[in-house]
Design a protein that fits this description.
Blueprint lengths: L4 E5 L13 E6 L9 E7 L2 E5 L2 H71 L4 H66 L8 E10 L6 E7 L2 E9 L34 H19 L31 H8 L14 H9 L8 H13 L2
Parallel strand pairs: 1-2, 5-7
Antiparallel strand pairs: 2-3, 3-4, 6-7
Length: 374
């Protein structure tokens, strides 16, 4: 049987008119071929198949590779964007954590200084009751401030912990995105190695990766050959991410153990060590203040019926009121002090708020009071 071969333009091509085993060559205008030329084989009238030449297969492989490269490039870009966003967020969280730790250390140092001042004032309280009472009150205030500052440090530590958790979550998401991109690249390489694209297996590798200016466009440059493609990436620097919202700071727990001794806070110590030292200092302060005198005393002259006067009071060397009276030659029957004290002493008594106008024993008691307070 003779094999017939027809030829002509695609507009004249009609598969229904072909016979079984007949060839038809389209000389121009075929939309299925890049150059408009194609060859068809008829199996029966109306049933034909287009025969692919070597050039056709090369074009098909290139089109498939272009599609794969476009998808791979989009996935890689998305992965890089996610990684940059996570990195920026992590840097912001790290800065916030460092600032919180620095603030906590500063406040802890201030609390330690306040506690040291309180201890010094408590020691002075042993020598003078009135001074001790005032300084004990100041020490209590300092201890309260130390507790407040420790609470603030605890809050700052909770903020740092939350920020670090957010950064870890975003870093995990970036790692997952990068793994997805890597899996896609591995799949493409496997298909190329297996010859799934009916052509020579091509290699795709990443060349240079540089960081562009913030706000610039992503640039991907392909170089090499069709069977050895090298992709160079220029990825712009990303914007700083949202640091997130810090909530429920008061519920953040802090774990620490009280220090074994009352020592100063040192630079570079952890928050757990600092809190342990603060608690030990507060406990030591409370023990030292226990049993101290009240902050003030109010008594009338008649309520003071006994006691011991310091020897140096009044310059008489006496330790009792009776001894002071005897040293000055004063008896209970005298009704005037005009002959016993000088004008300068009376002026000093008036300046101290002591009234010497009553006379008698009352004036004597007030005179003794004057000596006791000077």
């Amino acid at each position: 049987m003779a094999i017939q071969n027809r030829r002509g333009a695609y507009g004249d091509f009609n598969p229904d008119k072909l016979k079984s085993g007949e060839w038809a060559t389209v000389m121009s205008g075929d939309p299925n071929a890049a150059d408009g030329r194609a060859t068809y084989l008829c199996y029966e009238p109306g049933v034909v198949k287009r025969m692919a030449t070597f050039e056709d297969m090369e074009e098909n492989v290139e089109l498939s590779l272009d599609h794969i490269f476009d998808r791979f490039t989009a996935d890689m870009q998305k992965a890089f964007d996610n990684a940059n966003a996570a990195l920026a967020t992590m840097q912001t969280a790290t800065t916030a954590a460092n600032n919180a730790a620095s603030n906590a250390n500063t406040k802890a140092t201030a609390a330690n200084t306040a506690a040291t001042n309180a201890n010094s004032k408590a020691a002075l309280a042993d020598t003078a009751a009135s001074n001790a009472n005032a300084k004990a009150s100041a020490a209590e205030t300092a201890a309260s401030n130390a507790n407040a500052k420790a609470t603030a440090a605890n809050t700052a530590a909770g903020s740092a912990n939350t920020a670090a958790t957010n950064a870890n979550s975003k870093a995990t998401a970036a790692e997952a995105a990068a793994k997805t991109a890597n899996d896609i690249a591995t799949l493409v390489q496997q298909k190329l190695n297996n010859g799934d694209f009916n052509g020579k297996a091509a290699t795709v590798s990443v060349g240079n990766v540089t960081t562009g200016a913030p706000g610039s466009q992503v640039q991907i440059t392909a170089r090499g050959t069709s069977t050895n493609v090298i992709l160079d990436f220029a990825i712009p620097q990303g914007q700083k991410g949202d640091p997130g919202t810090i909530t429920n700071l008061s519920g953040q727990p802090v774990t620490f153990t009280v220090a074994s001794s009352d020592v100063d806070i040192a630079t570079g110590e952890t928050l757990a060590t600092i809190f342990g030292k603060l608690l030990k200092s507060v406990q030591t302060l409370r023990t030292g203040l226990a049993g101290k005198a009240a902050s003030s005393h109010n008594h009338s002259a008649t309520n003071i019926t006994s006691g011991t006067l310091p020897v140096t009071r009044g310059g008489t060397g006496q330790t009792t009121a009776a001894g002071v009276k005897s040293a000055f030659g004063v008896t209970a029957l005298e009704t005037s002090l005009a002959n016993l004290i000088s004008d300068e002493t009376i002026a000093a008594a008036q300046a101290a708020g002591i009234d010497l106008s009553g006379g008698g024993v009352l004036n004597l008691n007030r005179l003794v009071q004057l000596f006791l307070t000077n």
